Amino acid sequence: MAEAEANVDKKPEVKPPPGLKAIIDHLLQVYPEQPNPLQVTTLLKYWLGGQDPLDYISMYNHTGDMDRNIPPHWHYISFGLSDLHGDERVHSRAQVREDLAPRSGMGFELTFRLAKTAEELHQQLDNPEKPQRPPTWPANLLQAIGRYCLHTGNGLCFGDNIPWRRSLDGGASSKLQSLLVAQDPQLGGIETPFGSVDFCQIVGVFEDELEQASRWNGRGVLNFMRQEVQTGGDWLVTNMDRTMSVFELFPENLLNLQDDLEKQGSDLAGINADFTFRELKQKEIKEEVDFQALNVKCANEENNRPLTESQMKREEPSFPQSMSMSSNSLHKSCPLDFQPQTPSCISLDGIEITLAPNVAKYLLLAIKDRIRHGRHFTFKAQHLALTLVTDTVTGSAVSSKEPYGVVGYWIQVLIPEDLVPRMLEDFRAAGLDETCEPAQRVELEWPDKNLKIIVDQPASVLPMSLDATSLKIA
């Protein structure tokens, strides 16, 4: 009888939902000695009306392995960008094409590795039995990135870069003020009941490391950084006390990189940027098309779509506007939040494009390091995308006979091979280079191609969903 009463009083075991359990089980295999790590937990969950999309951020104590260039560090891992529950409370389970592997939620979680300070290491030696508490500012950093990703629907890929433009820890002393995205070397990726999940590790970098990752190849810069424990070592551990970039430590790397850039071109496929456009007319046209009309139409149609509960409560995040996209696929480089079904292409006689001054250097990169090598480049605003293509880019809607067109809310501009050297010469004559942000309006025109580019603050742009710094497409 007593045994029966004990069973009645026993509380039922609460099992974690399948997506959450899959990540927990994976982490138990990696950290079997830390079954209950410290966690930063969101009090009001995103699916209950809160603003933080990461339900939990676990913080593990990694002792390091100096024989393998891995310093002692804290390891932060997010829960929430993948589908933890499988009931569409956050992530809709949309129909996936048969040729694509299903991905859980956004298909990834965020991680971060923070090197322990000298003070923390001394405390550990002096009091090895005393538990240490990791800094919590990396959790705030991951939440900010998570808010951006979930709000915009833009995912992260290995090699992407994020120009944070401020110290990662909120202080004033560190030179690490930007981020690259790597694959977490310890966690890799897993399969869950709701699809695959990659673990994207956020890595703190210097401004010149970001610049070269933007111009050349994010993965290549990360590989340079892996070679020296000062710059992260094999596992790319972020050291907030680092004082020199990988290119200051090893100048020969920069020379090798610049040589590769000239020969092979850039992996940067586009950036988020303010722009406007209008048609340069030569003859009577079938349909009036310009930036303002198209942008308003897209916003109206998007606003008239039925919203899920999670979409209705999203706020616009504070996040860099020029983060990179690292896909060389033409269609993946146009990640529009809304695009009408089976849109037809409207051909334009000519086009005038206005780009913001803070993205002028990417115009030069687009022509010199992408178009010149037969690749495409995209400028993506909140509702619209503008892609420069060449004759060799497959899947584009424009051609040499009709070089300018609008497909739904996607503007495409074909740059012919014979125009590239003229454009580069005109850029140089106008003072545009890789480091410039013009203080005055710059107008460049090629009348025989009916193409005009203006570098100036675009007028009549609807409010952007990101703040005034700059996100990239690598």
Keywords:
alpha+beta; 8-stranded mixed sheet; disordered C terminus
TL;DR?
The chain has helices at residues 2-9, 18-30, 118-126, 137-152, 207-215, 218-226, 246-249, 251-264, 291-303, 309-312, 360-370, 420-429, and strands spanning 38-41, 56-62, 73-79, 103-115, 161-162, 178-183, 189-192, 195-205, 270-272, 275-279, 345-348, 351-355, 377-380, 385-389, 404-407, 410-414, 442-446, 451-455, 472-473. It is α+β, with helices and mostly antiparallel strands and 474 residues long. Strands 1, 2, 3, 4, 5, 6, 7 and 8 form an eight-stranded mixed beta sheet that branches.
Describe the structure.
With 474 residues, this protein is an alpha+beta fold. 25% of the residues lie in helices and 21% in strands. It has helices at residues 2-9, 18-30, 118-126, 137-152, 207-215, 218-226, 246-249, 251-264, 291-303, 309-312, 360-370, 420-429; strands spanning 38-41, 56-62, 73-79, 103-115, 161-162, 178-183, 189-192, 195-205, 270-272, 275-279, 345-348, 351-355, 377-380, 385-389, 404-407, 410-414, 442-446, 451-455, 472-473. The strands form three sheets. Strands 1, 2, 3, 4, 5, 6, 7 and 8 form an eight-stranded mixed sheet that branches. A hairpin with a 2-residue loop joins strand 15 (404-407) and strand 16. The termini are far apart. The model is unreliable at 305-323 and 461-474 (pLDDT under 50).
